[in-house]
Amino acid sequence: MSVPTHDAPRAPFASFSFARMLTAAAVFAALSGSFVAPAPALAKTATPKAVLDASAVAVPDRYSADTAQQIFAAGGNAVDAAVAIAFTLAVTYPDAGNIGGGGFMTVFMDGKPYFLDYRERAPQQATRDMYLDDKGSLVPGMSLVGHRAVGVPGTVDGMWQAQQRFGKLKWKQVLAPAIRYATEGFQVEPWLQKRHDDAAKSFAGKTNFDVYFSNLKAGVTFRQPELAQTLTRIASDGGREFYEGRTADLIVRQMYGHGLVTRQDLIQYKAVWRQPVTAEWNGYRIVSAPPPSSGGIGLIQMLKMKADLKPAFDGLELNSVPYIHLIAQIEDRVFADRQQYMGDPDSYKVPVGKLIDDAYLAQRADEVKPDAVPGATPVNPGLGDAMPEKAQTTHFSVVDKWGNAVSNTYTLNGPFGAGVVVDGGGFVLNDEMDDFVTKPGEPNQSGVTGNEVNTVAPGRRPLSSMAPTILLKDDKVSLVIGTPGSSRIFTSIFQVITNLYDFNMAPADALAAMRFHHQLLPQKTIYWEPYQPITGELAEQLQASGYTLAGQQFNGDVQLIRVDGANPEPAADPRGVGVGRVFH
Ligand code: DON
């Protein structure tokens, strides 16, 4: 039996099993207050043998890289580091890092893949038409800003479950760096002030955002005393404190009279361990996010269709007009399937197997033609009626020297979520309700549409595109990758993976290469990004081929670690302020 070494949660939050009861030694450690020496290892990892030369992270800011350093130095593993990074980003990267949102974690631990779904859920009082007015029209912004946009947050239970199951350190230890940043403050950089200023405009007069964040200015040491208290409660009482303790009281009070999240919603919330979606591709095993994300399926569909179309792609220059034209047709098909078949697997039986089936994808790939006229033929979902059935997110990748890995993407959805701060709790709440189909046929903030499978219903999880992914080679970690970007998430990951493996680029080059995006709607539109805009001859040729070009603010912030033999090579997207760091 394993020997957990975490702090015991205090009643009434003691939802852990007997298998998690502390041994006498661990009780002693827990009782000795702020004991932060490296905890003894769990029995299941009792004699870990280092298989890599180092541990490594690719993270979206420098503070979370420092946190990872402390956790590895204390003997923590990839899950300990991931949980500590997630809590740190909730403080130092508050437009996306969060405790008031949700996400997904793909884990490779002791040779096996796992997936943790800590996605937000619709409150029990949510209804299908809650964002429509009397005339059946969408109320602009209602699913994006303010209390009614908020889904039941999942991050804290996700981190709690991941760390309880796989962590080596004490729970308190992994929260300590975040508590320190919240208490002592951190230096605000200009990029964060800019994100704050942009978001603050959309919240002005509608939420209490500025009461907490008006001080977020470049050069200032930003302290968050109420958030520090919240994190301290969670550290000492365990993750369920957020759902059943004083933090829950504060959330419910914040919602009262304005939003739908109740105490019952919080008590009922549990993160769910699911089978990751997996597929063989190019000698690698892809492990990625299953529903309620479309991300893993979309990524696998794209990679397999491109492989099926090898003869058509052979010799094409990366990001040339014929290359973009073929990828755009692949993307049409992926997004057509996404809108028709994908939603919360606890509400609908999503046909995952059929959607990533080799024969099905070969047949879909066969529809892609070099000489197709953009937009001329409607692209339908491929399985027939098989079923009724600018925004802000962040990703980090972690490997430890024992060969374990975590790929984690989590989100508030929009920058700073709904802009609603929990008074007394000091943290912002998500606006994940906008990932539902708020009105069938109407696009959400990332322009994707959908149908009944993703309408609002009590307890349902909104469809996501997040795709924290791990590639395995011979049952060992070969790549850990993910990104924010809403519907651009899996198309961005796809592009970086093909840059790495089809074009043999080094990680930094694979990240720096131009990226574009296309989805089913708006038809014939190729989105370019400010980092490397599509201009000049390429722009003219695409337009001459029938495409419309559109700029977008954002095409991801990919954080990856490639493992080459025993050597982890982290790389952070030059579009962001991320950091790759190796710890020997
Ligand atoms: O779950 C999703 O797909 C979206 N809520 C993610 C939002 C996002 O990536 C925004 N990032 N910039």
TrEMBL record:
Post-translational modification: Cleaved by autocatalysis into a large and a small subunit.
PROSITE patterns hit by this protein: G_GLU_TRANSPEPTIDASE
GO BP term, example: glutathione catabolic process
Binding annotation for L-glutamate: R119, T411, L412, N413, D435, S464, S465, S486
UniProt signal peptide: 1-29
SUPFAM superfamilies linked: N-terminal nucleophile aminohydrolases (Ntn hydrolases)
Pathway this chain belongs to: Sulfur metabolism; glutathione metabolism
Active site: T393 (nucleophile)
An example Gene Ontology molecular-function term: leukotriene C4 gamma-glutamyl transferase activity
Catalysed reactions listed for this entry: an S-substituted glutathione + H2O = an S-substituted L-cysteinylglycine + L-glutamate; glutathione + H2O = L-cysteinylglycine + L-glutamate; an N-terminal (5-L-glutamyl)-[peptide] + an alpha-amino acid = 5-L-glutamyl amino acid + an N-terminal L-alpha-aminoacyl-[peptide]
Highest taxon above the source species: Bacteria
InterPro entries hit by this protein: GGT_bact, GGT_CS, GGT_lsub, GGT_peptidase, GGT_ssub_C, Ntn_hydrolases_N
EC nos: 2.3.2.2, 3.4.19.13
Keywords: Acyltransferase, Glutathione biosynthesis, Hydrolase, Signal, Transferase, Zymogen
Homology family: Belongs to the gamma-glutamyltransferase family.
Subunit text: This enzyme consists of two polypeptide chains, which are synthesized in precursor form from a single polypeptide.
Protein name per its UniProtKB record: Glutathione hydrolase proenzyme
Taxonomic source organism: Paraburkholderia lacunae
